[in-house]
């Protein structure tokens, strides 16, 4: 914030303190507060308040006014806390008793203001801003503010309650910090090293937590648990162990009560405790509490609890195994034979007999199993083979196929056609592909997956999940008959799905083909099967699909097919495929009305160019791609085109096969040849046009590439500039180059006249603005790329969002308000 802004500050303070004026919006006030923070961080001690007495007058005026707007009062409270964040400034506030007046809510002229949540949150935020030194803590303790903060912990506004919790934790943390304990060890410091009122404050906070957990009021219990979890995760010793000892008894009561609405919050508390030294000390009973929450699997809440425990990163192994056994019970129960039903608990059977709870339990069971599979968890009490069989049986039941022995199950009727369980089950089946022990089930697994792909009843989202599972099993566990399975079983189904009436299904099918082609890139048999089976023709025909998303996916699939064919040197078929692909893709880039397919085309060319097999074949098309992509109205197409240009530059300048044919030539000659290729491709026109594009990301990217090019040309001493002349007439960037050069020359001439110096060559240089041809190095020199890059990195609103602009807007709004009042009369 410069001196101009500071000069506007008194007037802005007067406007904000005037109750007749409409207050600025909340965003403007927050931005103004941000500038105060920045200014405060740059100033030393009491410099700001000493040089800007208007701030103290503003704060006093707002707090004493009987008609203050809640938004202005909230802003003032936050600002006061910010300005009192050093001991010197706090002393200035204290001299006239202003600080007590500001934060003593009973002293305000209008007590109803406290009913506004923004005022309460501003009050808390002000104290948070202030709590940077011991005097601030002394002020809070000495004026009874801890009690008010504790009351706000149970505020009806969730935002205010959360802010109160943060402030209480900050206070506790501040009490145990090194600057409060006279340099002694934090953990080993005794209470005698602290002031009595600080000790009383910490006791008051911890007693409030115990009282909240012992309360019969559910919201109060929840807030107490949230504060406890924050303390455990944010504070250190001795606060953690002291508080845990006090809350252990009420915590045990809450755990044993088994209230379903508290399970999530209780788990959060215990998870926080797992990350502290409390876990290693048996007297704190952290592990016992978690085990008590699980129970023996006979309570309704234990399944939810088990699902949460399975997800914990730091969890005792014994406890995790128990949670795993419990969470798998619903899955096992659904696939259990009638004679084994006696072993299943009554609570679980009752829940599975009701549709909503049945689906919920099975989804919990499946998602937990998938999570365990991602870590390749070693199951002990039950084999992974049995678990996988249960998942397969569940998926069959969802599609309407159920063994006669299980037809009695109520769950069967709930599961038929249930997309939620199908999607969850397919995710789990895919995750199980990491286990080598179940490879003998591969035939059954692919059988179920093919049934889903072939079923006319499969939902589009279920088919997408099926494709993902198929890909994982093909990639993770390749088998001898893989190619036969793909050619005879999978490809016919995919071809059928490519004709599906639902565009989402066609899109998912193409995405799957793309991913499969990428995954099996080095497999010549797959590439050959792709051509022989006729899938390539299907992919090419999809380039003309009626839906833009499908055309984009088709472009990606064809692109991967071309890449795979070129890598395997399938020369005859690949040459025909590439020719057809280029024709259709160029038509899409020049004619398609939707952006997604055009973006995909440029990305496909970039992918091809990154390889080393297709460079020569693409040479004739690159110029058109750069020209069409660079002039596209979609900014993302232009960005992808610049990425293509970057790859082209890297490939050419690192002596790729087609970039430099004469290996006996000097390095400078080879570099010149590469630049000539760029010129022929139209790369320079692309970069210079993009530099002055209306989309800032495009300008940034072009500028970065030109800076790189400027560095390379500057490092090449013997560069033949006559071969790198560009025509600057008749295009936008050329006019801009000429204009900038003329401005520079006029500025030089002005300086020369001022200094009394004249030069005979000035007129000759100034004539450049009317010439047609300029060399590339000269253009790069004319453009101040470093300054352009600096300006581009600034936010787009760095001018209008400046503190000066903000203050001027506030003053302008106030002036217009006064004019409107006069007009009324």
TrEMBL record:
Alphabetized Gene3D superfamilies for the sequence: Leucine-rich Repeat Variant
InterPro entries for this protein: ARM-like (IPR011989), ARM-type_fold (IPR016024), BRAT1 (IPR038904)
Subcellular location: Cytoplasm
Keyword set, alphabetical order: Cytoplasm
Domain of life per record: Eukaryota
Family statement drawn from the similarity comment of this UniProt entry: Belongs to the BRAT1 family.
Protein name: BRCA1-associated ATM activator 1
Natural source organism: Cyprinus carpio carpio
């Amino acid at each position: 914030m410069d001196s101009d802004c500071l000069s506007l500050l008194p007037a802005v303070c007067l406007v904000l303190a005037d109750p007749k004026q409409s207050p600025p919006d909340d965003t403007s006030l927050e931005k103004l507060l941000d500038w105060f923070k920045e200014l405060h961080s740059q100033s030393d001690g009491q410099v700001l308040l000493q040089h800007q007495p208007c701030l103290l007058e503003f704060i006093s005026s707002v707090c004493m006014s009987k008609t203050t707007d809640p938004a202005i009062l909230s802003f003032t409270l936050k600002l006061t806390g910010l300005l009192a964040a050093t001991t010197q400034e706090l002393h200035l506030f204290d001299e006239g008793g202003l600080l007590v007046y500001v934060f003593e809510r009973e002293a305000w002229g209008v007590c109803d203001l406290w009913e506004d949540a923004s005022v309460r949150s501003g009050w808390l935020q002000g104290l948070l801003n202030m709590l940077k030194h011991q005097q601030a803590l002394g002020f809070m303790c000495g004026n009874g503010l801890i009690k008010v903060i504790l009351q706000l912990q149970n505020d009806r506004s969730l935002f205010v309650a959360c802010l109160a919790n943060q402030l209480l934790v900050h206070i506790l943390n501040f009490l145990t910090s090194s600057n409060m304990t006279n340099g002694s060890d934090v953990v080993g410091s005794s209470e005698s090293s602290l002031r009595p009122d600080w000790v009383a404050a910490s006791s008051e906070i911890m007693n409030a937590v115990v009282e909240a957990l012992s309360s019969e009021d559910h919201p109060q219990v929840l807030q107490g648990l949230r504060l406890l979890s924050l303390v455990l995760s944010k504070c250190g010793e001795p606060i953690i162990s002291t508080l845990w000892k006090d809350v252990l008894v009420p915590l045990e009561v809450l755990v044993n009560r088994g209230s379903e609405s508290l399970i999530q919050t209780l788990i959060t508390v215990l998870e926080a405790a797992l990350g502290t030294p409390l876990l290693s000390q048996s007297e704190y009973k952290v592990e016992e509490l978690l085990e008590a929450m699980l129970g023996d699997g006979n309570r309704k809440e234990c399944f939810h609890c088990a699902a949460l425990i399975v997800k914990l990163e730091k969890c005792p192994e014994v406890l995790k195994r128990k949670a795993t056994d419990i969470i798998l019970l619903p899955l096992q129960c659904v696939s259990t034979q009638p004679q084994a039903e006696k072993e299943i608990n009554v609570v679980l059977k009752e829940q599975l007999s009701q549709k909503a709870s049945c689906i919920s339990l099975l989804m919990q069971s499946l998602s937990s199993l998938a999570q365990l599979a991602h870590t390749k968890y070693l199951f002990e009490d039950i084999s992974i083979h049995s678990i996988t069989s249960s998942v397969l049986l569940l998926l069959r039941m969802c599609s309407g196929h159920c063994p006669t022995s299980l037809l009695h199950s109520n769950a069967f009727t709930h599961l038929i056609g249930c997309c939620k369980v199908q999607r969850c089950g397919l995710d789990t089946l895919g995750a199980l592909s990491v286990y080598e022990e179940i490879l003998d089930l591969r035939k059954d697994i692919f059988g179920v997956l093919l049934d889903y792909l072939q079923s006319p009843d499969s939902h589009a989202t279920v088919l997408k999940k099926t494709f993902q599972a198929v890909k994982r099993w093909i990639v993770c566990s390749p088998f001898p008959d893989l190619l036969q399975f793909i050619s005879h079983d999978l490809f016919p189904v995919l071809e059928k799905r490519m004709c599906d009436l639902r565009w989402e299904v066609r899109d998912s099918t193409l995405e799957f083909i793309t991913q499969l082609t990428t995954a099996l890139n080095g497999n010549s048999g797959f590439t050959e099967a792709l051509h022989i089976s006729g899938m390539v023709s299907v992919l090419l025909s999809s380039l003309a699909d009626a839906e833009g998303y499908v055309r984009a996916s088709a472009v990606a699939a064809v692109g991967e097919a071309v890449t795979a064919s070129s890598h395997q040197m399938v020369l005859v078929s690949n040459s025909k495929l590439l020719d057809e692909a280029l024709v259709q893709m160029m038509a899409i880039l020049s004619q398609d009305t939707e952006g997604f397919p055009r973006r995909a085309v440029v990305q496909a060319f970039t992918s091809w160019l990154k390889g080393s097999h297709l460079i020569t074949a693409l040479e004739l098309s690159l110029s058109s791609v750069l020209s069409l992509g660079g002039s596209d109205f979609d900014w993302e197409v232009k960005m992808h085109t610049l990425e293509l240009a970057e790859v082209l530059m890297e490939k050419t300048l690192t002596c790729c096969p087609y970039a430099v044919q004469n290996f006996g030539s000097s390095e400078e000659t080879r570099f010149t040849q590469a630049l000539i290729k760029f010129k022929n491709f139209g790369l320079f026109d692309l970069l210079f046009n993009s530099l002055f594009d209306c989309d800032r990301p495009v300008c940034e990217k072009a500028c970065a590439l030109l800076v790189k090019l400027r560095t390379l040309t500057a490092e090449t001493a013997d560069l033949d500039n006559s071969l790198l002349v560009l025509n600057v007439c008749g295009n936008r960037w050329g006019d801009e180059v000429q204009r900038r050069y003329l401005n520079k020359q006029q500025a030089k001439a002005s300086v020369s006249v001022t200094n009394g110096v004249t030069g005979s060559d000035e007129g000759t240089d100034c004539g450049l603005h009317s010439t047609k041809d300029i060399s590339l190095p000269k253009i790069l020199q004319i453009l101040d790329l470093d300054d352009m890059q600096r300006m581009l990195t600034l936010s787009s609103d760095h001018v209008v969002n400046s503190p000066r602009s903000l203050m001027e807007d506030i003053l302008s709004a106030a002036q217009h308000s006064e004019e409107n009042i006069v007009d009324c009369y």
